Amino acid sequence: MSNKEYNNDYFSYEGVISRKNYTINMLILIVLLISLSLIRFDTIKQFVTYNFLYETLIFIVNFFKFVIVMSMLSVIYRRIADFSENKSIKFNLIMKRIFILLFVFPLLYFYCIIYFFNFSILFYTALILTFIGFIASIIFCFLK
């Protein structure tokens, strides 16, 4: 697939995505993530006789949340590729660095690094960057 073709894949970092498809895909992914987060799976624990089944269910749900977050990253990356397509190489490089700073670093911190380095300054930095990334992902809906 060339970089100029639009695609609607949820887990592809190739190509670009239009504003309309970006908005639709992000709304679908956000609704899925919020609905999975609102379901109380701990109430199922009292009905399951084997703890292994409950732990397996929790693992599958958490893995599905991780897949949704990675799909959000791919949609955001393709949207950045779309509106920085006709810009200069320097602008492309800056936008890729912003993507890494606002979206990849907080994700890596909250999924991996927090278990090894639990510094409060890194936690608050990742939290602020997550909030800024959330605002930026909304702004990406309106950029041409």
Radius of gyration: 18 Å
List SSEs in N-to-C order: HHHH
- N-end to C-end Cα span: 22 Å
How would you sum up the major sheet?
none
The geometry reads as: globular
User: How many DSSP-defined strands?
Assistant: 0
Number of helices: 4
- Classify the helix fraction into a percent range: 55-70%
Classification by helices and strands: mainly alpha
- What number is the mean pLDDT? 86
What is the percentage of strand-forming residues? under 5%
Low-confidence stretches are none
Summarize the structure.
The chain has 144 residues and is an all-alpha fold.
Report on this model:
There is one protein chain. Helix content is 67%, strand content 0%. It contains four helices and no strands. Helix 2 packs antiparallel against helix 3 and helix 3 packs across helix 4.
Question: SSE layout and pairings?
Answer:
Blueprint: H1 19-38, H2 51-83, H3 89-111, H4 120-139
Helix pairs in contact: 1-2, 2-3, 3-4
Keywords for this structure?
about 140 residues; 4 helices; single chain; mainly alpha
